[in-house]
Specification:
Elements lengths: L19 E7 L2 E2 L3 E3 L11 H5 L2 E3 L2 E5 L5 E4 L1 H14 L7 H14 L12 E10 L12 E10 L10 E5 L16 H5 L2 H9 L4 E5 L7 E4 L3 E6 L4 E4 L8 H13 L4 E4 L3 H5 L3 E8 L3 E10 L2 E4 L9 H14 L10 E4 L1
Parallel strand pairs: 9-10, 9-16, 13-14
Antiparallel strand pairs: 1-2, 1-3, 1-8, 4-7, 5-6, 5-7, 6-18, 7-8, 10-11, 12-13, 12-15, 15-16, 16-17
The structure holds pyridoxal-5'-phosphate and 2-OXO-4-methylpentanoic acid.
Length: about 350
Amino acid sequence: MSKDMDWSNLGFGYIRTDQRYVSNYKDGSWDEGTLTSDDCVTISECACVLQYAQSIFEGLKAYQTEDGRIVTFRPDLNAERMIDSAKRLEMPPFPKERFLDAVDQVVSANREWVPPFGSGATLYIRPYMFGSNAVIGVKPAEEYQFRVFVTPVGPYFKGGAKPISVKISDFDRAAPHGTGHVKAGLNYAMSLHALVTAHNEGFAENIYLDPGTRTKIEETGGANIIFIDGDGNVVIPKSDSILPSITRRSLMVVAESVLGLKVTQREVLLSEVKFGAFKECGLCGTAAVISPVGKITDHGEEFVFAAGMEEMGPVTKKLYDTLTGIQMGRIEAPEGWIREIK
Ligand code: PLP
Ligand code: COI
């Protein structure tokens, strides 16, 4: 049974839940790990994460199905992406099977915090890892902490399914050959000024362009972008500095094999968007799910998608319904996508 809460009015914020998982890495190995009710972290004032931002994280969700089961969606891909992130930041990867077990343990220990089916809320799961020992010369830490906490959340963007207005950022998110393809805290630290700037101007998010030429669409601060062209097919921007979103990779499969749409992954020029090549646009990610974009503004020049500012476009809606149907157990999932938590 879920706790008695006003689940339908939750925003995307942190609520302290009961148990979290902690494992420490020291002398070349991870300890056995444990659940704890202690939500505070004690580390050196000179910890590598505090001085040089050696930190990586993941984001996934647990859902309650209509028949009351609790499930996670493709957590194996989060485990694998975290291993890739760890390698890029010279951190010791947390083993995949242990990652899956840690997530299961934390969700299971906080099952009352999993929002009820149909409430519009979900349980957000945040695995993360950081360099914990004192480091003053620039080098990787020797000790690390891996943690997982959970917090119930509502929609990432206020208004849920209502289309948002975004701007083309004047700032860059990820350099070519940089860290855009991994989930490192540093990618988000440098997005904060750009985000506050966008919010102050009345936009919900930034679309970042490729820093090399500033002509191609990459992604937003916290989600990948999908476009629907004039024939109702899906077009996905391609770049080595985009985070490989699990939601987006899943949507590509759903679009092709469940909905029979054509999916193309290619470089997408900002000029194509301005010339009206796409009828619908959406931001996709664990937090964003699929948030429709109604309008893109580039230095005062506005482009409104055909689907408008009132509701999700028809193809985006189909993708949304199918994906969330799979995640919440209403629609049969492809093999291996759903992990039930006992
Ligand atoms: N892109 C960025 C920059 C993100 O932070 C996220 C969030 O995880 C995504 C894309 C979406 O990825 P996923 O679908 O795996 O959550
Ligand atoms: C997610 O969707 O899990 C993210 O990490 C996006 C944002 C909350 C950083």
